[in-house]
Amino acid sequence: MKRFDARRVKIHRSYAVEEAARVLRSHKNTVRNWLGDGLEPIDERRPILIQGAKLKEYLDTRRRRSRSPCGPGQIYCLGCRAPKHPMAATAEYIPITPTSGNLSACCPDCLGRIFRRVSLPRLAAVTGNLTIAFPQAEQRIVEGAEPSLNCDFEREPDAQPGE
Description:
Layout: E1 14-16, H1 17-24, H2 28-37, E2 49-51, H3 52-66, E3 75-77, E4 82-84, E5 90-95, E6 100-106, E7 113-119, H4 123-127, E8 131-133
Parallel strand pairs: 5-8
Antiparallel strand pairs: 1-2, 3-4, 5-6, 6-7
Helix pairs in contact: 1-2
């Protein structure tokens, strides 16, 4: 379902179907479908006019209806389009910034990767009964006292051509 930005709608303005479609960057048939789905016009006369406040309210209600908030221990799966408890009740925390990161796990139904953005202070409330793995950083390469076996420092330089 495409998201329409209800903030683009002026609440004190009346819109014709074509104007509403242009403001929301949609097709005029989409706005006509909304009229059949419960969006109220100002009256039944032509041209059909829609009050901005009613249009904004309709879009906000439509968006709220389609939301599926995740509870504790759930991560939203885009493939299944529903909140899911991860497979084996385990997830991995991948830091993005010093204060937030992503929980990554596997969906038990479609076996796809699922992610949930979480801040560190809220991590305990969001995880519920999940077991969280914090990956360790890779060791940095450090210089050793012994050169590697394929080191060219010991070889004589090749003679220059013409010498």
